[in-house]
Amino acid sequence: MEQILLPVIDNAGPEVKAPSRFQRILFVWLPVRQIFPVGIGYLVNWIHRIHPEISLEVLDLTRFSEGEQLSELSKAIDRFSPDLLAYSWRDVQIFAPHEGDNSLRRAFEFYYSPNLLTRAYAAWDGVRMVWKYRTEFHKKLRFIREGMRRAPKAQVMVGGGAFSVFAEQIIRLLPEGVIGVVGEGEEAMIKLIEGRPLDDERTIVRRGREIILGKKAGAVEIRRAPFDLSYLESIFPGHSLYHGKTVGIQTKRGCPYGCSFCLYTYIEGKRVYYRDPEDVIDEIRQYRDRWGIRNFWFADAQFIPGVKAVPECLSLLRAMKEADLGITWSGYIRTSLISPEMASLMVESGMGDLEVAITSGSQEILDSLKMGFRLEGLMEGCRNLKNAGYRGKIILNYSLNAPGETPETLAQAVESYEEICRIFGPENVYPMVFFLAVQPHTSFEKRLMREGWLSPDYDPISLNPWTIRKLLYNPGPLGELIARACLVAWDIEPMAMGRVVMREIKKSLGEAPFSPKGSVAVGAS
């Protein structure tokens, strides 16, 4: 698609603070499972610091029943009279490739179950789920259209994780005039507010059939980004819904890795920007003292995004330890970069359950997916944590049947799980079985197009039995073996199926000794 620069609205100039073109901005958190709108919290603080004269409000549609959501949106617009409506769209797909998601189970029952009655029920329930997906998807479009109808003079913006991934598909379904934002939105919103050009921001609009893309020239510098929770409370009527729950905090933004199936680099960029530890700790204290929050999720692409990030991570951990916050925290963490010193600081600062994207037990598979770490380093980091006294749960994310998977590499995945069980104890290790979901803007998607698995003109938001099977990558000859193991696991232990899957795969393949540096022979004793 050709890139076309967005038109200049008014060149107020970046050096001088321009007056605001908008007086009242309503942020709308579109319905999703109950999860705190982290991004909106940072956006409203950012805008308020630069333009305190603007009135802001946050409407969280999640806190209302399905039958109330549209009327609550209408009432909020009528009462607040916004001249800028900013929607945040977090989720799109329901066929998420992780255990505990019933739609994945129904898909596998339909494709792989030997029982005709089971397949028939899965087909019926799958139709219901696809219908629900389509209903929810179009409901969100309706909320945006209703906002435009209710406030015809207001500018409308749409952003958020789901929109960022499917922006080119979604913008075609929205009325002309809507401005979409891909990735971070702070600078794009400030420029729109001040009437400055948007051509150097990742914005997207539609004019007829033409899609017009802005091109991002830089990233938002977040080193000093203080957070004022009391201000958020004053403009967010539904904040009490999240008191005492787990809240996300961003300590950094960006990821230097190039994992072939991951979207973080596309959304946040490859350059990493860090927040000041003082601001992070102050934010944690506010949530703890005002909302009773004791559990925090560091909403970073990776807590340790590469060797260059180690000094920053150590600085934050030392500050957290010194602050003695009395909290538990977690996030996505690469154990391959955990030194003995970092392991001690993690334990002493309150790290809880740990989520590790091991992906495979084969270095060859990891390298083909451009994961950027060595298995021996991952194991060494686990040992450092154990030696530091870590007693939490280890959640291992495996993406089985990746391109190039063989019986040998699959057996290595099982043995890598067992090796980590030997380090922490099997009662503390929870393997999570993932499948590589095809996502737009990833090198994995491009690879599957080159190999003929996907058509270049496929629609990533269209779900039917053919596209679902393509988008949940699980090809033969190992696909059926893995799927049957999943079906057994769902019947035996649906809420913790990973352990059963590993056991069933091992039973099918035989045992193979773990070797991070090389391959093994299946069936070796």
Automatic annotation (TrEMBL):
InterPro entries with a match to the protein in the record: BchE-like, Elp3/MiaA/NifB-like_rSAM, Methyltransferase_Class_B, rSAM, rSAM_horseshoe, rSAM_sf
Boundaries of every Radical SAM core domain copy: 241-477
Top-level taxon in the UniProt lineage: Bacteria
Cofactor requirements of the protein: [4Fe-4S] cluster
CDD domains reported in the protein's UniProt record: Radical_SAM
Keywords per UniProt: Iron, Iron-sulfur, Metal-binding, S-adenosyl-L-methionine
Keyword rRNA processing part of the UniProt annotation: no
GO cellular component entries: cytosol
UniProt-recorded Gene Ontology molecular function terms: 4 iron, 4 sulfur cluster binding; catalytic activity; metal ion binding
Name of a matching Pfam family: Radical_SAM
PANTHER family listed in its UniProt record: ANAEROBIC MAGNESIUM-PROTOPORPHYRIN IX MONOMETHYL ESTER CYCLASE-RELATED, SLR0320 PROTEIN
Protein name as annotated: Radical SAM domain protein
Organism listed in the record: Leptospirillum ferrodiazotrophum
